[in-house]
Design goal:
Helix content is 38%, strand content 15%. The protein is α/β, with parallel strands linked by helices and 186 residues long.
Length: 186
């Protein structure tokens, strides 16, 4: 059985999808509840609308987007993931809030030091951003590289975690998300 919940945040509407084993998917904030729900449920039979399986995760997620330091230790369901992706995602979860690591570090962490590009591809397929903090993985020289929701969003998430996002920047983030949604990206 699948469950979903839509979460209002300071940056827009986020979506959560879970099985009985744990979180399956998280959509980053979208301009509207409808867009968040559409992105969340793409390719999924309509799950039950039930907040119970998520506990206080919706509230913690909203607090995260307000700039609060939140450690997400929630259960995730990676049972459908290939072993390499699962290893990458589990290792990425070790990167603490407010810190970054390189793709090279992550490749070495999973015992595949030459697999930097494959690590990047696995992160690009991450269905649970924030919980699996792929935005905290950057280039070896400190540069921002690939992010499904755009480099502006990746940079904003890193700034949010550094505590350096103002109310004006949150408004800008909403504008970026509106542009992102209007362009049809998910």
């Amino acid at each position: 059985m699948l469950f979903h919940e839509l979460v209002p945040t300071a940056m827009g509407w986020a979506g959560l999808l879970a099985s009985e084993r744990g979180l399956l998917r998280l959509t980053l904030p979208r301009q509207s509840r409808d867009i968040a729900e559409q992105d969340l449920l793409a390719g999924v039979a309509t799950p039950m609308r039930d907040k119970a399986p998520f506990g206080d995760l919706p509230e913690r997620l909203a607090a995260y987007f307000q700039g609060e330091a939140i450690a997400f230790l929630d259960s995730v369901d990676l049972s459908e993931a290939a072993p390499f992706k699962r290893a990458v995602w589990e290792a990425a979860r070790k990167v603490p809030y407010g810190e970054v690591r390189s793709y090279s570090w992550l490749a070495a962490e999973i015992g595949k030091p030459q697999a930097r590009r494959a690590v990047g591809q696995a992160l690009g397929a991450n269905p649970i951003p924030i919980i699996i903090p792929c935005h905290r993985i950057i280039g070896a020289k400190g540069d921002l590289r690939g992010f499904r929701d755009g480099l502006e969003t990746k940079g904003l998430l890193l700034e949010l975690e550094r505590g350096s996002v103002s109310e004006q920047e949150l408004r800008l983030a909403k504008a970026v998300l509106r542009h992102h949604d209007a362009a049809g990206h998910s």
